[in-house]
Amino acid sequence: MRNAPTDAEAALWDILRGRKLEGLRFRRQHPIGGYIVDFICLDEKLIIETDGSQHADNPEDGRRDRRLAELGYTVLRFWNDDVLTNPDGVALEILHRTRRV
């Protein structure tokens, strides 16, 4: 997936990479708890997922999020359209969750 990210993943990675978002260090396509997450900030124990329509009402996402929460992580999910049409709002929500705003 690193070599062929979705448009939303590429756009969000552009916001997150290189500590551009208030110095937070994110990794992409990181394995944790038997899953590969889209983006993770290990210091903040924050996972960010970009979701397309295949995730609407997907019960596996709930199981996955609960498992990651058991490991101490917070999972934020953003619809692909939100990332593409409101990147500033997405970035602000991430900062709110990390209490950097």
Quick recap:
The chain is of the alpha+beta class. It is built from 4 helices and 4 strands, in the order αβββαβαα.
Secondary structure elements and pairings:
Elements: H1 7-16, E1 27-32, E2 35-41, E3 46-51, H2 59-70, E4 74-79, H3 80-85, H4 87-97
Parallel strand pairs: 3-4
Antiparallel strand pairs: 1-2, 2-3
Tags for this model:
101 residues; alpha+beta; 4 helices; 4 strands
Please give a structural write-up:
Helix 2 (59-70) links the parallel strand 3 and strand 4 (74-79). Helix content is 39%, strand content 25%. The longest helix has 12 residues, at 59-70. The protein is of the alpha+beta class and 101 residues long. It contains four helices and four strands. The chain has a four-stranded mixed β-sheet, with helices on both faces.
User: What is the general shape?
Assistant: globular
Structural class: alpha+beta
The description of the largest β-sheet is: 4 strands, mixed
Beta percentage is 15-25%
Helix content: 25-40%
Radius of gyration: 13 Å
Poorly predicted segments: none
The whole-number mean of residue pLDDT values reads 90
Following the backbone from N to C, one meets helices and strands in this order, namely HEEEHEHH
Oligomerization status of the protein chains:
single chain
Ends apart, CA distance between termini: 31 Å
Give the helix tally.
4
Per DSSP E runs of 2 or more residues, the count of β-strands stands at 4
Strand order of the largest sheet: 1-2-3-4
